Amino acid sequence: MNLRQYASNCRELCDPIRSVDRAADKLKVLGIQWDTLTDLLLFSGAKVSSEIITKRSVMSVVASVYDPLGYLSAVTLPGKLFVQNLWRNELNWDEELSTEQRSEWSRIVSELCSLSQVSLTRHVGYKPTATCQLHCFTDASAHAFAAVVYLRISDNDTHQSSILFAKNRLAPMKKPTIPRLELLAVFIGVKALNFVQQQLALDNIHIESQFLWCDSLVVLHWLKSNKPMRVFVENRLRTIRQSSALFRYINTSENPADLATRQVSVAQLTDSNCIWWHGPAFLFLNQDQWPQDHIPEVDMSVQRDVQTEYKALVEITAAVADNDSQSSVIEFDRFSQLNRLLRAVVYAIRFLKHLLQKGLTSERYTQLGVYARFCSRISSHSAISAIDLSVAQEFVDSQVQAMHFDLVFDALSMGTRHKLVDSLNLCIDNGLLKS
Length: 435
Description:
Helix content is about 40%, strand content about 15%. By secondary structure, it is α+β, with helices and mostly antiparallel strands. The chain folds into three domains: about 25-65 and about 75-115, no CATH class; about 125-300, Nucleotidyltransferase, domain 5 (2-Layer Sandwich), CATH 3.30.420; about 315-435, no CATH class. The strands form three sheets. A five-stranded mixed beta sheet has the order 7-6-5-8-9. Strands 1-2-3-4 form a four-stranded antiparallel beta sheet, with no helix packed on it. The longest helix has 26 residues, at about 300-325. The radius of gyration is 33 Å and the shape is elongated. About 25% of the residues are buried. The model is unreliable at about 310-325 and about 360-365 (pLDDT under 50).
């Protein structure tokens, strides 16, 4: 069998091979076009048809841009946002776009068709003797969040930096806060670093260190904080903290990920001064010339954003502490067995029943009225019945709920909203929270 379609960027290697056995100078490698003469990766523009513009045809055009490594993320974002707006406007699949929408789509298509002007040098300059680092930059806007990874290669005080991988995602339609979107950007940045390092390890490329650069002071403060956060933030911080990357602050003006969170034209992306392809200028300098490793002072608005995710927990804790000080007539934590606790509760309620029957109206005993519904159901004779224990169990349940879910009781009483009420469909039944 005669092997054919040889391709290489090395002319000395290709010259001895017969022309009939050589591949064309431009060929596709894993779906991306490669020019072997210039050693450039080339990109194709979107495939546009002349049919009526509907949501179906719009999604077809947006999906026709093949960009598995995210190199074109900064330019393809407007198309993705346009599709999201079509979903938000609840257009049917084959419903024709309005005049205003067609005008906006025409501008987006013009940019997508210009992607053929974009090219990228394939070779990143790696040598076996060089030292390699991975640098990930993250950012978010109201519309999207993104992460972009660069390989920094150092050899004899010479430094090179090249883009390896990028990813951006649209902000959910429910519009989370900007700090949460910034956190999501760091979250996918950590995953991107792990993915790139695993792929480079397949080629025995050792990464000396990883850096993750973020321009969100709120997220950086969350990473340094030991305070418990709300579930959404806490779960993502737990994953982020498992990364071996060093987290550093970067000014927004030097952050290349910023380009993938806003609308950028092909002309801007192909500009020779664009930081998208090689990262900020300091990556080409020695490490002692990088931005200082410290978090700048924050103003009151940033402090408010930092505290937002744990403020509610602090308030709940304080409320529980306050309720503990005026809690049940019995200290539950003195009992190690439930049966003993219930029997003690029966005797305590019998004693309260005796006080209420005597008609004590002293200010010291006015609060005993709240236990009247339990006293009327407890027997007065010495033997403790199963009904007595059942009433005692209900008493314990009501006291625990009152101590730890007072905010839920307040919400149900005043008709205001609470996340537990909404998620569990809670109501008050005979003094107890039930679903």
